[in-house]
Fold:
Amino acid sequence: MKITGVRTHILQASLSQAFASSRAWYNSRTAMLVEIETDQGIVGWGECYGPARMTAAVVDNVAAWLIGKNPLSTEHLWQMIYAGLRDHGQKGVVIQGLSGIDIALWDIKGKHFGVPVQQLMGGAHRTELVAYATGLLRRKAEDPTRYLAEEAAGYVAEGFSAVKLKVGFGVEEDALATGVVREAIGPSVKLMVDANHAYDSVAAIRLGRLIEKHDIAWFEEPVPPEDIAGYRAVKAALSIPIAGGECEFTRFGFRELFVSRALDIAQPDTCAAGGLSECKKIADMAEAFGVRFNPHVWGTGIAIAAALHLLAVSPCHTTPSLKAIAPLLEFDRTEYPIRQTILTEPIEHTRGIVRVPQGAGLGVEIDRNALTRYAAH
Structure:
């Protein structure tokens, strides 16, 4: 089998109302999908996290390297692309582009052999994942404590046993919002907070000490990704587990985080950190270092499917036992018209539980009409 074509699809959709993380306000959301064709008629799909037009440029310029190659040689092709751009792209958009290619190649491999990706990656530890609801961003409304409480309570009513709150809007405001959300969801639902690296270590420690009483499951990206010393300082100062890594790339970047003991929970994004090939290596490294593994997921149904297969084969947080602690799936609940409409069968949750797709490859099919509808111009 040979690769005959590589295409990129840049998608964009407007939002009915703007929302914000600590970094910026957003009026629309984009996606960048990778389609790889073969001479046997098998087509694979991948997705790149990051700035869509930039990742598309990476994939478009690497495409010629792939034509005529065997798509089943996922490890060889990963190394070929990485080595070819090593002098210029050990991190960032180059690796994000490589991630989408790698995911698409795994999709082809699974379809070729007629089995789900997780079976080819070693076999599943689990067939379903407990999902946590990511949402609770800011809106352009007067009283965030009111709508955050209502939204959080809504997730619990849907059956989610864990939710994640966006913070990074000022220490006092964050502490107030955390308390309001904890009250709204009750004591038994897990609550995580995510600052999207808005703070330095001084502010992050101050916030952490104010919210420790609310039984926080983890504090995500408290400081910028470059500040490994800051991560270590926050981790040493707080009893809250510290999470990060969505802005880190490849096993080489995570090696530094693990050796430095900077994290309790590693969060590579499958569509950014190097694809399925690399994130499985990162998961195994995390186990070796005693670091928990909960990948970041912020994309379309392709990204969700890839993360589900990765999580299916990822080790438990604890050693195998009757009550082993399994990783969680991040399940974005914010407005994103592209997310599920590109799939002929959306990936849904049932009372906070999401099943791993069992079809060949990633186990999802793409609705090409949706690609046309949301194509960016």
About this structure: The chain has a mean pLDDT of 97.
